[in-house]
Design brief:
This is DUF2029 domain-containing protein. Keywords: Membrane, Transmembrane, Transmembrane helix. The chain is globular. By secondary structure, the protein is mostly helical.
Length: 419
């Protein structure tokens, strides 16, 4: 005779599978409707389409050599070229502001949702698992960034997330994925201190050399292939300068529409050049870097001291560091908040208390994107977001330190759904 509990479990799994299928279809439908209704940020999309055509005509190496406007690393360009080849085979032209181009971004979104569903499978509580998946799949801020704006911030954000999550158990793959994140967008470097201090902590406390060596080996592999390819194409220097070195310090405003401390919270007009000196004798830019450095030190100390389960520590530290990167330095764009939001949403799989920052960040990131799209960035529309974001950042740091000495969650509790 079948066990009633086993039959109930099978029924729950089938019910959840049906829910997931409907959710993914709904997520795709909503994104397609938004992409059709709103053209988004046309200048970004026009550049992407131009880069896509350049890569299709000249190859990756030739595109960087001939097109000085390319300022993204090569991985997304390569993905766009594959998508462009598919459209060309179907006789379709990709146009900025239309579904023909945004469908690529929607496909990347759906892949991200599938990954989150997989990562959430360890949560035994079906209700909480469903809530976290819905919050990610139908997150209005994430949908606005891709289906409306026409950007691809979810790609490097998910690669950063995967590199962090795989770090404790699959360091070689973590290194590969982090290299791919860096080859997607330079902003991925944000979580490197988290990865580095975790590896060094294992080395210092437990004399574990293998994770560090495996991670480094994985990280090197994609770079060897990339540098070899662009070196052979004669465009290595152009790729490095356009995608990485020239991107730093290109804009000198205290904030580039990011609702952070430099949007009036510090008493600084957002348009103030960050090369100006502050009263204490250093530039605004250097003071922002100093604040970020202090945040990095604090987060590294949390990783070193914390006794929570490894994945929980890494997710919380990464979420806090990504938000600190958005909030504290100068020259930050509004979309640089997306990795912080992604990591915060995934922390919910481990700690329900992070529902508050997840909800508040969803609101502020969404509204930040909307006012930029509407060309309506001013003190009245934005300062409240900067204040809320600062509150969330301080809440995160307080949460890190209050949980630094917490013992790991027992396995039985984790299986029961105490995420």
């Amino acid at each position: 005779m079948n066990d009633p509990l086993e039959l109930e479990s099978i029924a729950d799994k089938r019910k959840f599978a049906g829910f997931v299928i409907l959710l993914v279809l709904c997520a795709a439908a909503v994104r397609l409707a938004l992409a059709e209704q709103y053209p988004g940020f046309i200048s970004d999309q026009r550049l992407f389409v131009q880069w896509m055509e350049s890569v299709r005509d000249l190859g990756l190496g030739g595109a960087f050599a001939a097109n000085g406007q390319i300022n993204y690393p090569p991985l997304f360009l390569w993905i766009m070229s594959l998508y462009g080849d598919l459209l060309h085979a179907l006789g379709i032209s990709a146009n900025a502001g239309s579904v023909s181009f945004k469908s690529l971004l929607i496909l990347i979104d759906l892949a991200a949702i599938a990954l989150v569903i997989k990562l959430a499978s360890s949560v035994g509580n079906y209700n909480w698992r469903s809530f976290t998946i819905v919050l990610f799949a139908l997150n209005p801020a994430l949908m606005t960034d891709s289906a409306v704006w026409g950007q691809v911030d979810i790609l490097h954000s998910m690669l950063m997330l995967l590199a962090v999550i795989w770090l404790p158990r699959r360091p070689f793959m973590s290194g590969i994925i982090f290299a791919l994140a860096m080859l997607t967008k330079f902003q991925a470097i944000t979580v490197f201190p988290v990865i580095g201090i975790w590896l060094l902590t294992g080395l210092a406390k437990e004399r574990k050399f293998r994770p560090l060596l495996m991670w480094a080996a994985g990280f090197v592999c994609p770079w060897i292939a990339t540098l070899g390819y662009f070196g052979a194409a004669g465009s290595l220097g152009k790729m490095i300068s356009q995608a990485y070195t020239d991107a730093v310090g290109f804009y000198t405003s205290a904030t580039m529409n990011a609702m952070n401390i430099w949007f009036y919270v510090m008493g600084t007009d957002p348009n103030t050049p960050d090369t100006e000196y502050m009263a204490i004798g250093i530039t605004i830019r250097n003071f922002g870097f100093l604040l970020l450095f202090l945040a990095v030190v604090g987060i590294c100390l949390y990783i070193y001291r914390s006794r929570e389960e490894s994945i929980t520590v890494l997710l919380k530290a990464s979420a806090s560091l990504c938000l600190a990167f958005f909030m504290l330095p100068t020259e930050i764009h509004e979309r640089y908040s997306i990795p912080a939001l992604v990591f915060t949403l995934l922390v919910l799989l481990k700690d329900k208390k992070w529902t508050l920052p997840a909800g508040l960040l969803t609101l502020t990131v969404l509204m930040n994107l909307i006012i930029v799209l509407d060309d309506n960035v001013n003190y009245g529309t934005g300062v409240w977001m900067a204040i809320v974001n600062l509150f969330v950042l301080l809440w995160m740091f307080r949460s890190l330190w209050t949980g630094a000495g917490r013992d790991p969650v027992p396995a039985a509790a984790a299986k029961a759904g105490d995420a």
